[in-house]
Amino acid sequence: MISNLKAILNKSLIQRVIYSLGLIIWTLLLFDRLQSAPHAESSIRLSYLTLYLIPTLILIIQIIRNNKVLWGMTFGLFSAFILISLILGVADWIERSGNHVKAIDWTFRDIVLIILYFGVLSLIDWIIFMIKPKKII
Predict the structure, then answer these.
(1) What are the backbone angles phi and psi of residue 130, rounded to the nearest 5°?
(2) How much is the average pLDDT of 33-56?
(3) Would you say the pTM of this structure is higher than 0.85?
């Protein structure tokens, strides 16, 4: 089953479709922020416009060229996003767990949502890893 999936994901057209879907989803996720306050700072201290443009340009070029160099940038950028999200989440959890702030009341729902969030991010990162193109440049 995994070998069949690898064979499907190795096709250049499928890879470009996946990058196109990623671009559409990325645009839909940030559309509201870009429309209302493009220069406002996000939680990772970048403006929403910058946060949108860098991955968008990489994805557009990857859709056109589909090579390992841009794939590496896409994979690295998404992996860095996961790592930064995890670091900021843990830092926020540690900060809120002190005596000076009301303790976090973790519910089962909160824990499931966090696991689901990082599970989906990890699945997307795995898919990006699996669609590594054959062309170097």
Answers:
(1) -75, -20
(2) 85
(3) no
